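Project outcomes to date are best conveyed with an example. Our students and postdoctoral researchers have been running inverse folding experiments weekly, and each run begins with a structure described purely in tokens. The record below, which covers 198 residues, was selected by the lab manager from last quarter's runs and is presented without edits.
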């Protein structure tokens, strides 16, 4: 099994729960047949694919990214059938950056759950449609094509994040580079760090 390293970002003197590096070998095999879905540490469930998305299940559910278009049904089914939770328990969807492989199911998940959408202020205009995707000559048409095929709609952010803000138990770390509004989320209690594509 290929190991994923895209979730961890080194910080000095911090021990990590190795999210994304655990094998499915010791997990319930039915998830392996359906999709690459696993609980990577207590209360954090990873959906692997082109990009990862995560369910953080506490009193309320926090989603970190929504994956590609068409993932909303799989995420909602998992919440209902495996976690025995209601989709309305999703209170916040945090987007680590505006690329379609992280926001593809955002509009549908917001509509189903009624959750608030949180994104760094520098990327908010991209998910609302006020700015258009910039990038390579390849990615612009791919982004447009995906939005047409999956009928993705723009989403207005409810929460504009800045460096140092807290969202649930997680501290926002602004990490511009991949996009101007890329963020990481760090929980000092369990040492979990979500890094998106940074």
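After processing, the design step wrote out the following sequence:
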């Amino acid at each position: 099994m290929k190991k994923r390293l895209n979730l961890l970002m080194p910080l000095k003197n911090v021990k990590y729960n190795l999210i994304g590096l655990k094998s499915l070998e010791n997990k319930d095999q039915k998830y392996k047949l359906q999709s690459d879905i696993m609980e990577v540490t207590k209360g954090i469930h990873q959906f692997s694919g082109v990009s990862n998305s995560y369910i953080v299940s506490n009193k309320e559910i926090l989603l970190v990214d929504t994956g590609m278009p068409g993932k909303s049904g799989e995420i909602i089914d998992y919440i209902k059938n495996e976690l025995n939770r209601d989709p309305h328990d999703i209170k916040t969807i945090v987007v680590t950056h505006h690329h379609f492989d992280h926001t593809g199911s955002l509009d549908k998940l917001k509509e189903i759950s009624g959750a608030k959408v949180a994104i760094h202020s520098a990327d908010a205009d991209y998910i609302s449609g006020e700015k258009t995707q910039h990038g390579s000559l390849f990615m612009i048409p791919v982004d447009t094509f995906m939005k047409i095929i999956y009928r993705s709609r723009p989403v207005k952010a409810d929460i504009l994040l800045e460096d140092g803000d807290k969202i649930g138990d997680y501290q926002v770390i602004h990490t511009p580079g991949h996009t101007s509004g890329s963020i990481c989320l760090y929980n000092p209690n369990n040492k979990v760090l979500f890094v998106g594509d940074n």
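Residues 24-194 form a domain with the Metallo-beta-lactamase; Chain A fold (CATH 3.60.15.10). The first helix runs from residue 29 to 34. The training component of this project remains on track.
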